[in-house]
Amino acid sequence: MEEVVETTRTVYGQSCVTTGLVLGKFAPFHKGHQLLVDTARKLCDRLYVLIYDSRDVTDIPLYIRANWIRTLYPDVIVIEGWGAPSESGHDPDVMQLQEDYIRRVIPEPITYFFSSEWYGEHVSRALGATNVVVDEDRDEVPISGTRVRKNPHETKDFLDPYVYKDHVERVVLLGAESTGKSTLAKALAEHFLTAHVPEHGRDFWALHHDEGGRLTSEQLIELICEHEANEDEASLSAEQYLFVDTNAITTCYYDLFYHGSIHPELLKHARLATDRYQHWFVLDTDIPFEQDGTREDMAHREAMQKAILEHLKVLGVHYTLLTGSVEERIGQVKTALKMG
């Protein structure tokens, strides 16, 4: 990398702000990219990061990739390149197309252009910027986006935990009361050496229920928000899979059970759950019903199970029904995850 010393320059006796630009797909944003951004931040007063949509390369949405950078580097100005050209390469027309786009979306002149790629020379020339090449041969951080995409779990050491969490596959366990969800979620986490998220509803209910044993719709919304926050926190320490006991579909059921209708906000959480979880399992009612003093009865268990299955049907969710003992159910989960 060529020497660049000052951040704020002096031109004709006046202070001049230095600006920098980093661009890429960041699919995903790995530690090689972080080296690029860290280098740029040291050398610039103001840094822009332009991130391309690149749907042909990654399934991870642009807004998630942009949020990685905004979260890890709150001082950086992130520009989401929704309309960026998909063409790339050495063809002069393609290079011109890219240069025109970059000039159009960057709001001010750029002092330094940072990259570790061949295009640094022509982009910096088009911007009238100094070309700063960082770790071009990947000696300092020996990783590439292609390698991470092939197996993010084997290369997770090159990902910040905040980035890796979005590569963790969330596995949700649904089912009526007393179908073994809590036991299975913990057993699966132990088997796969990862984290699990216990049901939050029981503890929340114990603290907030009224004299009739009910929660308000507003409390149920608070409950599911806290439950999902617990998931997000647990995903930071998960390995490949995160096993989750219950989700918003169950919360919707209790709103219907308590009040005869489902609050729109809870329905929204249930709809969004179709993207939140990559694997869905429903535990069958083929194990003995255990009354712990807080549950209804077996008839209610069957009604609840029917309601959950109907909601999944409405949402178009594909799920696997788990039957038998804990060991048998673990085996069924393993088979389904391998197939998925």
UniProtKB/TrEMBL annotation:
- Every copy of the NadR/Ttd14 AAA domain together lies at 170-329
Q: Does the keyword Ribonucleoprotein apply?
A: no
Q: Which SUPFAM superfamilies match?
A: Nucleotidylyl transferase (SSF52374), P-loop containing nucleoside triphosphate hydrolases (SSF52540)
**Molecular function terms in GO for this entry?**
transferase activity
Residues covered by the Cytidyltransferase-like domain? 22-150
Q: Which residues form a coiled coil?
A: none
Q: Which Pfam families match?
A: AAA_28, CTP_transf_like
UniProt keywords (A-Z) are: Transferase
Write down the superkingdom of origin.
Bacteria
Q: Give the protein's recorded name.
A: Cytidyltransferase
Q: What organism does this protein naturally occur in?
A: Candidatus Uhrbacteria bacterium CG_4_9_14_3_um_filter_50_9
The lineage, from the top, is: Bacteria, Candidatus Uhriibacteriota
